[in-house]
Amino acid sequence: MGAALLRSDGRQACALVCVTGCIAAYKSCEIVRLLQKAGVRVKVLMSEHATHFVGPTTFRALTHETVAVGLIDDPQDPIHHISLAQEPDVVLVAPATANVMAKMAHGIADDLLSTTLLATNRPIVIAPAMNTGMWEAAATQENLSTLIARGCEIVRPACGRLACGDVGSGKLASVEDIAQRTLEALGRTIAGDASGNLAQECAGLLQGKHVVVTAGGTQEAIDPVRYIGNRSSGKFGYAIASAAHAMGARVVLVSGPTNLPCPDSVHRIDVVSADDMFQAVDAAFDGADILVCAAAVADYTPVRKADHKLKKANERLDCIELVETRDILASMSARKGDRVVVGFAAETDNLIEYASSKLASKGCDAIVANDVSRSDSTFGSDTDKVTWITADGAEELPCMPKNEAAFEILRRAALLYR
Questions:
Q1: Would you say residue 222 has pLDDT above 60?
Q2: Of 102, 113, 145, 300, most Cβ neighbours within 10 A?
Q3: Where is CTP annotated to bind (predicted)?
Q4: C-alpha dist (Å) from residue 27 to 14, 22, 174, 346
Q5: What is the pLDDT of residues 305-337, one digit of tens each?
Q6: Same domain, yes or no, for 208 and 163?
Q7: 113-117: long-range contacts at Cβ-Cβ below 8 A with a sequence spacing of 24 or more?
Q8: Is residue 309 one of the residues assigned to a domain?
Q9: pLDDT of the residue at 313
Q10: Is 1 inside a domain boundary?
C-alpha cells in the first residue's frame, strides 16, 4: 500500500465504495485495491442484490473493515446510514445500476445503500454499468442529467461486449479510470496549500453561475497538411474548467486540439482555428456570467488556404501572406456589461509591463500573466507561477500545481463578479 493520504486535520482520507447488483460487481474489488494503493482508507457498502455476485467476506478481507449491507444489521449503530453518510470524504457508486441511479435521482430511500446516498453531502462519483438498452433508455438519460445537475461526477460506461452478449455502450469503465476519477474528486475535497484548503474554501462560490473557459491552442491551416500553431497544451484551461465545476458552476469549455480528456460534467465544444473559437465563444458568451480566456489563440492566419498539399518543388512556402485573426478577448470585453472577463498573457520577458498593457488595451477585468520562459511555468508543465493583474495592481502568486492555481484564479474572478 502507498503512504496514507491525509486530510488537513491529519486523519487518513476515506472513500465509501457502494456496490450494487450487477455482474460487474467483481470489478469493485480491484477498484478498492487501487484506492488503497493510493493511500486511501476504504469502506464498502453493498446492496442486498450485490451480495449475490460478490460476498461481503471478500470486501471485508480486502479492507479489514465491516461491510455494510442491511439497514438495521448493526446493533451498535442504530442510525447506520447517517454515520456511513458522514464518515467518508468521497462516495463512489461502482457499478451503478439503472435502478440505483433512478433511486438517487428521485430521492427513493428504501434500503441502507439508497438511504446513505440520500443522506450524504460528500462528493459522489457514479460509474454506471448496464445493458445498452437500459443505458440509452430515455428514463435513464433523464436520471443521468438530473444527477449531473446536482453535482455528481459520472464515469461514463464504455462500449464493448456486455455480459448478455450484446455489443454496445453500458460496459463498466476501466477500473483505472474509475479509481483515478474518484481520487481526483477526493483530491478536490482535501487538497489545499499552506494557507488552507483551497477546494473547500472555494466550494459553492460559483453555485448557479455559468462559466465559459477557452483552452489549448488553435491551428491555422496553410494547406490540408500544414498549419500555423503554438505550444499550448491546454492543461491550465482544462484545470480551470474542472475547478469551476467543482465550485458549483455550469461550465462550457471551448477547446482547441488537445489530447486531454474532457473534465466530467463539463460541456466541451471542440474547435480548430481562431475563427472557429471566436464563433463558439461568441455564442456561448450570451448566457455566461464569467469568461476565462486561457486559450493561446493565433494572432494571424493565412490569407489563402490551399485545398491541396503544396509541393515545395513548384509551390514554395517561403512567403505566406497573413491576416490578423479576430480578437476574442477584446470583442467579448467590449460587450461584457456586468459579466467578468479574465484573459491570459503568456510572456517571456517584461511580464508585468506587457500584461498590464494588454489589460488596458483589451478592456477585460483581469489578466493572468504567465512567464513561460520559466521551467516551472512553461507550456505543458504541471505547475504555474502567475501574476494576477487588475486595474488595482499586480499580485504575484506562488508557484503551485495548475489545479490549485485554477481554484485561486476562479476565487478571484468570483469576487470580481460579486
A1: yes
A2: 113
A3: 299, 309, 344, 358, 362
A4: 19, 10, 9, 44
A5: 888 988 877 777 778 889 999 999 999 999 999
A6: no
A7: 113/18, 113/20, 113/45, 113/46, 113/47, 115/71, 115/81, 116/16, 116/18, 116/45, 116/68, 116/81, 116/84, 116/85, 116/91, 117/18, 117/85, 117/91, 117/93
A8: yes
A9: 72
A10: no
Shared domain for 341 and 211, answered yes or no, is yes
Asked whether 204 and 248 are in contact (CB, 8 A), the reply is: yes
- Work out the burial of residue 154: count CB atoms within 10 Å of its CB; fewer than 13 is exposed, 13-18 middle, 19 or more buried: buried
Q: Confirm if 38 and 183 have CB atoms less than 8 A apart.
A: yes
Domain endpoint, select from 171, 190, 209: 190
Binding-site residue positions for CTP: 299, 309, 344, 358, 362
Residue 129 · residue 24 · CB < 8 Å: yes
For residue 245, give the nearest of 228, 257, 263, 232 by alpha carbon. 263
Q: Give the CATH number of the domain where residue 54 resides.
A: 3.40.50.1950
Question: 366 forms bridges with which residues in the sheet?
Answer: 342
The model's pTM: 0.56
From the candidates 14, 164, 319, 399, give the one annotated as an active-site residue.
164
Cβ–Cβ < 8 Å for 189, 124:
no
Instruction: Give the range of the structural domain holding residue 177, as residue numbers without chain letter.
Output: 14-190
Rounded to an integer, what distance in angstroms lies between the CA atom of residue 301 and that of residue 280? 18
Question: What residues does 59 pair with on adjacent strands?
Answer: none
Query: What phi and psi, each to the nearest 5 degrees, are found at residue 234?
Result: 85, -5
Each residue's pLDDT tens digit, 366-408 = 999 988 887 766 777 778 889 999 998 998 888 888 888 899 9
Clarify whether residues 392 and 290 are in a common domain: yes
Instruction: Encode pLDDT of 99-125 as tens digits.
Output: 999 999 999 999 999 999 999 999 999
Q: How far apart are CA 204 and CA 202, in angstroms?
A: 6
Is residue 273 situated within a structural domain?
yes
Q: In angstroms, what CA-CA distances link 231 with 221, 295, 296, 328?
A: 16, 11, 9, 19
Residue 262 is a catalytic residue:
no
Residue written as grid cell 442484490: 49
Residue stretches of the annotated binding site:
299, 309, 344, 358, 362
Which DSSP string do the residues of 349-389 spell out, in sequence order? S-HHHHHHHHHHHHT-SEEEEEETTSTTSSTT-SEE-EEEE
Q: Is residue 66 part of a domain?
A: yes
